[in-house]
Amino acid sequence: MNLLRVLPATLLCLPLIACGGTSSTPDKTIGKSVAEATSGVGQTVKEAMDDARKEITEGNIKISASNQPQAEITPDGRLLIDGKDVPADANQRRQLQAYRSQVVAVANEGMEIGLAGAKLGTDAASEALKGIFSGDSDGIEKRINAKAAKIEAQAKRICERLPAMLASQQALAASLPAFKPYATMDQSDVDDCGKDTVVQR
Does the pTM exceed 0.85? Predict the structure, then answer.
């Protein structure tokens, strides 16, 4: 993977524009300013992720299926379909909570990957500009690749969670008929996970 090749050309031209395009001695403070700016973008994404994580953890989990009304699973293990409480015994409520926990775990893992991906993009821009100013461009790709490898490892953790999520969904669908139309995950989702997420180097 060569991230320098995919960085927008306009971004790589920023130092020249900021320096007036004629100076032979680049101003290193510009690189610092860009790094600070991209760091701010990452912080904004993190704050949005924190809000979403809180909503998923503490709120109802919404589930949908073709030609079916909206359904939700509450934190205390109730199934709501079209806003109405579906009767469920204690065991079914435990199963609803177990399935909900699996969904929350996968969603949180996905958000962590999203945050890491956003940070990787800002890091790549910052590293590229610092490389231009310092003349040390050889190590940039190696540092970015190391961060990308961590994101790949996070993506694999999502795939590792899917078998348990599928089993939980199937058990719930067998136990609670009202939930069955919403049990749309199948083995192919498990088998195909990760096939399109490998970062090319």
Answer: no
